[in-house]
Specification:
Helices cover 27% and strands 35% of the residues. It has a three-stranded antiparallel beta sheet. The protein starts with a strand and ends with a helix.
Length: 60
């Protein structure tokens, strides 16, 4: 199996004040052969939230 590095970026969370259904994370995978992949992982609810935020921006 090839070695890889995994990098995760997400907001610091307060376990008592967190909407697990409305979140996202950014992920990077660095393979030992030099290939790199970037992935954005969103919940379905966060996709809806982002669409609503974009619609509000367009009305301005």
């Amino acid at each position: 199996m090839k070695e890889f590095k995994l990098w995760l970026e997400y907001e610091e969370i307060d376990p008592g004040n967190w909407d697990i259904d409305n979140e996202f994370a950014n992920i990077q995978v660095h393979l030992s052969d030099g290939r790199q992949y970037g992935i954005n992982v969103w919940t379905y609810k966060f996709l809806e939230t982002t669409i609503k935020m974009d619609k509000k921006k367009m009305k301005i």
